[in-house]
């Protein structure tokens, strides 16, 4: 008897989403359809504003400036700059 009760509860719970979808579909189809209901306007897309990068100032190599060359390791940069 317990198995039967659990089976009935399972079937009822499983049918709830189907009943919900059926009632939503029935509610959505009341009234007459117009072309405006079928075709939705294309939403306007706002442009993505990308900041323009500022030009990099050409700093001559000095005490505080170090120009990283290709192949430099982090250790070499740290040793030369004293960081």
In short:
The chain is mainly alpha-helical. The chain is built from three helices and no strands.
Overview of this structure, please?
The chain is mainly alpha-helical and 83 residues long. It has a domain at 1-29. Helix content is 47%, strand content 0%. The protein contains 3 helices and no strands. It has helices at residues 2-28, 35-38, 74-81. The termini are far apart.
What proportion strand?
A: under 5%
- Secondary-structure element string: HHH
Secondary-structure class: mainly alpha
Q: Tally the helices.
A: 3
Q: Based on CA inertia axes, which overall geometry fits?
A: elongated
Task: Report the C-alpha radius of gyration, rounded.
Answer: 34 Å
Distance between the termini: 79 Å
Stretches where pLDDT is under 50 for at least 5 consecutive residues are none
Number of strands: 0
Q: What percent of the residues sit in helical stretches (DSSP H or I)?
A: 40-55%
Mean pLDDT: 70
Describe the biggest sheet?
Answer: none
Topology:
Blueprint (H helix, E strand, L loop, with lengths): L1 H27 L6 H4 L35 H8 L2
Give the key terms.
83 residues; mainly alpha; 3 helices; 47% helix
